[in-house]
Amino acid sequence: MQSRLTFIANASTPAVRAAAFPLDEGIDEFGRRDAAALAKEMPRSRIVLTSPAARAIETATALGFDAAIDKGLRDLDLGRWAGRTLKSIADSEPEALESWLSEPGSAPHGGETVDSLIARSANWLNEVLPRQENVIAITHPAVIRAAILAAIKAGPRSFWHIDIGPLSVVELSSNGLRWTVRAIKN
């Protein structure tokens, strides 16, 4: 029996528009509009899960889902960089930013490493695998990238080579033994 896991990235936020690392913020007007349009295309599922972040919960609501919060879907912890723009970090800590972008085990911001996020996502996928049901998970681009890498057993250096924008939809399927990537829609 095949099961399907559909990831949906949270809708756009003010931080996305400012090229900043997010704090726990809600989605913006554009995100609400785009989510309402996407809602018409979304399949319905008995199981809808969301990250505990406001932007994921608001995305679920805008998509018309009554979702249960799953802490396993929480975003990458960016430590002291949360709320800061990429430019400000590049200007003040260029070596630290370069290290973080090139070394998956690096966490100069004091938060979570990309390696840790991938391991956490792999564990979460393993918890979902035996369910043999269709699940929709509303989470964050970093979590979705990590889940793709875990599903296809790709190396962590591939993390930055996957583009997941606001409201991207990624479908994985499982035969109960392993995951495969079915589709990615940006």
Automatic annotation (TrEMBL):
GO molecular function terms listed in the Swiss-Prot or TrEMBL record: phosphatase activity
UniProt-listed InterPro entries: His_Pase_superF_clade-1 (IPR013078), His_PPase_superfam (IPR029033), PGM_Phosphatase (IPR050275)
Transmembrane region(s): none
Segment forming the signal sequence: none
One Pfam entry name: His_Phos_1
Gene3D superfamilies for the chain: Phosphoglycerate mutase-like
Protein origin, superkingdom: Bacteria
Name of the protein this chain belongs to: Broad specificity phosphatase PhoE
Organism of origin: Hyphomicrobium facile
Lineage: Bacteria, Pseudomonadati, Pseudomonadota, Alphaproteobacteria, Hyphomicrobiales
